[in-house]
Amino acid sequence: MTNEKTAALTIEIDRGKCIGAGNCVDVAPGVFAQELDTGVVVLLDRAVSDDSLSTVGEAADLCPSRAIALVPAGRDTAPG
Amino acid sequence: MKCDGPALVTSHAGPSLDVTGYDCTTTERYEMTETADIGWPLARSNERPLDPPPQVAELRRTCPVVRVRLWDDSAPWLATRYDDIRAVLANPASSSDTLRAGFPHPNDGVRAARRAERAFIRADPPEHDEKRSMFRREFTASAVEAMYREFTENAVRTMLDDIEQTGPPADLVSALANRVPSAVLARLLGVPIEDMGFFTKRVETWMNLNAGPDVQLAAMAEIHDHFADVVSERTSLPGDDLLSRLILEHVNTGELAREELIHIVRLLIVAGFDTTANTIALGTLAFLQSPDQLALLRAQPELINKAVEEVLRYTSVTHHTGYRQASVDMEVGGYTVKASEGLVAPLYAANRDPERFPDPDRFDITRDARGHLGFGFGIHQCLGQHLARLELRIVFRQLVERFPNLRLAVPADRLEFTNAITYGLRSLPVTWDGVQPA
């Protein structure tokens, strides 16, 4: 059985909501970064893998301004 | 839980508050709680001064969202569960604008101070976002690491040298807890360390709820006047510091009024000094009261990051924060809060919720305390949290390494806690023996 849960998720960020608290960078530094000039979040990798699910999920949970969401991937990328 | 007894009348400091018979689950709840008389804030117990007031746990079990009575007879909604507190703080309908009519405050001293603070911490979007964004890059984890790590490590080492040479005993509030953030702030603002005594003395008065609103406001005004002069100096002669950068990039371009910069910098002083100083003091006390945890951190210094999150969760020094006002009708824990009603979402209540942190009153540096609300939640979450973490990690790591036998020099029940906007200790007398070579 394939892991439908992770295969079906990608990360979405809302830069307008970001307050630059930087918790996401703390827990998932390979996935999120902060722009040097503004401190606003930058997404380095949209994909959620089995390995990254727990840290990415934690980043979304810790985000105080609710700027990170894990959303179902588009139908074309979802497993058959 | 179905409550069936009558509502109990309680006093503000009533240690005997029994809320088990308090009716908070019936459909009449709203009406009942409108006239309820649970005074807030409640007093902490003398036996466990690092814990929230003991009735908070009982309220969380029986009436997790309930109206309470404040000093001015207003009756905001109090939330005591982690999920509800987090939701209140993250809700865009929760206003932080302290100038709104009916905004709730825990007492008249906090009310005076927070109405006089005209900085983005007391503003809602879009104004809040516009102003906070000017400060973000100064406080990212990588920026504070690059700008302050080496400086702070050296500063703390020197302070511990002093303590070692002049003691035992020592007062860790004056010799360490107050000195660390003072040194970092002097660096951050580019002011001489000798000037910091001026600020910290006035911050103490500003925070002191025994002083009275007029005295508190006078101390705030003195800091304001001093910064007005500093801002003038930096405008004509910029240096390599945060203040100069803000003047060059935001004041000179017309985005930020000079007067507002002064308000914001004054807030940085209190947010950067008072919170960190008290967390160092109360965190040290937590370690001294759990010597096994102190020994564990000494044996496994790699636990330092976890330990600091636990210190932040356990101490929750900003015990008079989390006050908001509903700007429109909103829902909290299944109840409707109407527009203009007050909200109280205490960080210490969230941080001791057993649903989120099992055995919450136990200080345990091995637990996963991440997700604690020690820095708040929502758009106002602490701007300087990475700087605070950096300072706390350096302080506790060096302290346990240098003073393995650190212990209280007085009985715990003789320690004096402050009646202040931020919770803390008047002094922390410690002693030690068998100091390891540096």
Mean pLDDT across the residues of chain A is 85
The SS-based structural class of chain B is alpha+beta
Largest sheet of chain A: 2 strands, antiparallel
Cα-atom Rg of chain B, whole angstroms? Answer: 22 Å
What's the β-strand tally of chain B?
A: 10
Residues in helix, % of chain A? 10-25%
Q: What structural class do you assign from the helix and strand content of chain A?
A: alpha+beta
Strand portion of chain A, in percent?
A: 15-25%
Share in β-strands of chain B = 5-15%
Secondary structure tally, helices of chain A: 3
- Low-confidence residue ranges of chain A: 75-80
Poorly predicted residue ranges of chain B: 1-18, 25-35
Sheet with the most strands: spatial strand order of chain A:
1-4
Helical amount of chain B: 40-55%
Number of helices of chain B: 16
Biggest chain pair interface? A-B, 20 and 21 residues
Oligomer classification = heterodimer
Write the SSE topology.
The complex is a heterodimer of chains A (80) and B (438).
Chain A: H1 4-7, E1 9-13, H2 23-27, E2 32-34, E3 41-43, H3 53-62, E4 68-72
Antiparallel strand pairs in A: 1-4, 2-3
Chain B: H1 29-34, H2 55-62, E1 65-67, E2 77-79, H3 82-90, E3 94-95, H4 108-116, H5 127-132, H6 141-166, E4 170-171, H7 172-177, H8 179-189, H9 196-207, H10 213-236, H11 242-251, H12 258-289, H13 291-299, H14 304-315, E5 323-326, E6 330-332, E7 335-337, E8 342-344, H15 347-351, H16 385-402, E9 407-408, E10 429-431
Parallel strand pairs in B: 2-8
Antiparallel strand pairs in B: 1-2, 3-5, 4-10, 5-8, 6-7, 9-10
Helix pairs in contact in B: 4-10, 6-8, 6-16, 8-12, 9-10, 9-12, 10-12, 12-14, 12-16, 14-16
